[in-house]
Amino acid sequence: MPREAEPSLNERQFVLQALQENLRLDSREADRYRPLEVTFGDEYGVAKVSLGKTRVLAKASAEVTVPYADRPLDGVFQIATELSPMASPSFEVNRPTETEVLLSRLLEKTVRRSGALDTESLCLVAGQKCWSVRVDVHVLSHDGNVIDASCFAVVAALRHFRKPDTSIEGGILTVYTPAEREPVPLGWLHSPFCVTWSYFGEEGEMALLDATRAEEQVRVGSCTISLNRHGEICQIAKLGGTPVEAVILLQCTAIALTKVKEFSAYLDKKLAEDIKRRDAGGRSAELTAENDR
Amino acid sequence: MEVDQQHPLVLPGDTIDPSLIPTHKKQPLRLGPGLRHIPPNAIIPTVAGQLIADHKKNSMWVEYNGGRYIPSPNDLVIGQIVRSAADLYYVNLTPYTSSATLPQLAFEGATKKTRPILAPGALIYARVTLANRHMDAELECVSGSTGKAEGLGPLTGGMAFDVSLGLARRLLMARSREEGGVEVLELLGGEGLAFETAVGRNGRVWVGSESTKTVIAVGRALRETDEGDLGVEQQRKLVKRLIREMR
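Above: the input entities. Below: the structure tokens describing the complete assembly.
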């Protein structure tokens, strides 16, 4: 298996020395993200997120299946991540690296376990039929901070997604095509986002947001905080690395909240723009069969 | 260079207009990168790019911005030491490819007792001496004819930046401003920044300076020139902006 290419000694030293002088290679401030951009596909549920040179594509899809026997009233929701050799030659197909396992685990905890998607609304016939929603995450290019970009892509794809409308009459389930009835959005409860801090220095006293690949390779530890814009924390993961002082972690969490508010506002704006773009004739309000929650 | 009748865009397998092939009474025709001679008398491009012919030297080649470096003799490259063996170093020219070899005695003034000791991860500036498709490339850090380093050897301090192969090639041209259309390094030097560079044909540029800020500014200038494919006028604007941001 190809090992990840190590940065040279010169690069290692220089990145750290520059950080000592409060400088980053791309002249960003410590708590600034690279330009974040999200574009939606022509199909519902396709979101492409780029964060500098890191690019992630997420696609949501839904199909009707049988619910799990122990949860007859819940739908099925799963997130599948894939780090292909396209992102970096050190990744191999069908052999998950530690990065990939951590990524899928963090997405699972952030989006699935925090109850962002209302799985009960996916139930069609109790114990017999339900929607199975699946999000596929593809990392297209890896230049650091894949976690934040992937989480944003998953949330964007799910909020953009529309599942086919259904009706039940006399025990017969009908799934309508988009031509018959306008597809309906998923039952969405809150939008969690990940914010990853990287720590540098002997005791992790320097904290950076949105580390690039070069910075990720020389960091001494990292901490991923997932929260929504109301400040409700879904999870905090500080997996190994140098211990970081509690005061620094508190500051990081406070800044993370402001970042998440920005993400939330940006995604809302982009989704509204997309709805406007699709609503060419201005008749989408009449076509929809959805009621206000 | 502008695409025109004289310098057309070619695709792999295209037929080349015979009028573009240079003719010379004495010198034989020399084919550069991206062209292949198929006996008896066909010349076809093997890559997509711009066909350039030099009538004085009776040579022609395809100019392209390839993504992958393939070593060829006499290229100046920046390599990264992977490990050392009994009498040679294994050097990586590009990540995830098989490494090149650098004899430990191929340094200026190196003898069996006084050879430079390089740790894994150290950067060196070297010349390719041997390269063919069946063997790993061989490097040297000393000129075979004079026995002097001539600027080659270990690179200490500084920072290595990745650029595209096309930009590295343009930077290495003897008249990089007129022929290659890159002026950023001269412009930055003209603004009073003190730095030294080493350009590797394998798409790496090493920048060394006393001041960290200068190195970062040079790195950003190179990266933005490369990614934005900036012309000379835009490079001037970029340098002015970078200098303003530094102050």
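Note for the figure: Residues 110 and 116 of chain B are 7 Å apart (CA to CA).
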